[in-house]
Amino acid sequence: MKGGRGGRKDHNQKEIVEALRQGGAAILDLSDIGNGAPDLLVSFSGELYLVEIKNPNTFYGKKGFNKLQQKWSDEWAGRKPIILTSVDEAIKWMNVQRRSMKWKNVPRETVGPL
Length: 114
Fold this sequence. Notes:
The protein is of the alpha+beta class. The chain has one domain (15-100): 3-Layer(aba) Sandwich (Trna Endonuclease, Chain: A, domain 1), CATH 3.40.1350. The protein has helices at 13-22, 59-62, 67-75, 87-104, 108-111, and strands at 26-29, 40-44, 47-53, 82-84. It is globular.
């Protein structure tokens, strides 16, 4: 995937990254890659997630993925990137992931056929 420039970070990225780390996530900052790639690779509860940070206080941030980011996401064969816009949203996302991880550890006979 060609084009685009890296290095642009939303102003809320630092605080969201800090909240994710405090919640137990390991973070790899990908924002310098550019070319539509997501901002972060997040390891949380034994899973990897691609995360795009958006600032809802800007016109650009309110629109979601830009064209280059959408193209990257469409062409990516793995788990699709999620968008986080605030510390509160990051905390809620981690709580949802924690709850879903509980189900993965329940014996299959308890849950029934999958």
